[in-house]
Amino acid sequence: MSKPDYLFDKSFSLNMCKYESIDKAIHFVGFTDDKLAPESNVKKLMDFYPNSKKSLEMISPASINVSSIGHTGFFREKFKSSLWQFTLKKINDLQCATTT
Predict the structure, then answer these.
(1) How far is it, in rounded angstroms, from Cα 30 to Cα 57?
(2) Alpha-carbon span 52 to 28, nearest angstrom
(3) Is residue 35 part of a domain?
(4) Looking at the predicted structure, is the pLDDT value of residue 10 above 70?
(5) Does any domain span residue 21?
(6) Within a 13 Å sphere around the CA of 91, how many CA atoms are in the beta-carbon half?
(7) Domain interval for residue 82
(8) Handedness of CA 57, 78, 87, 11 (dihedral sign)
């Protein structure tokens, strides 16, 4: 079962003192079939960046015509022409938005 604080759970002993000072745009991406980081956990993660402009996009496997993505599926080479390209476009879009 996933923890609501996910990566920032106290058991990881991360120093959290600088997260609230981050003020850059952050686009969060989650997968609807991710059991370790479901949408509720991603939203909780977003709370750790109170001074950032945040957006969230949840991607379903069906939206890219696959049966599953899961927690680490994004890194599979079979997503090179779909999820990876989508991510590169989002990064480029965010960079362009912050420089104009």
Answers:
(1) 6
(2) 12
(3) yes
(4) yes
(5) yes
(6) 6
(7) 6-99
(8) positive
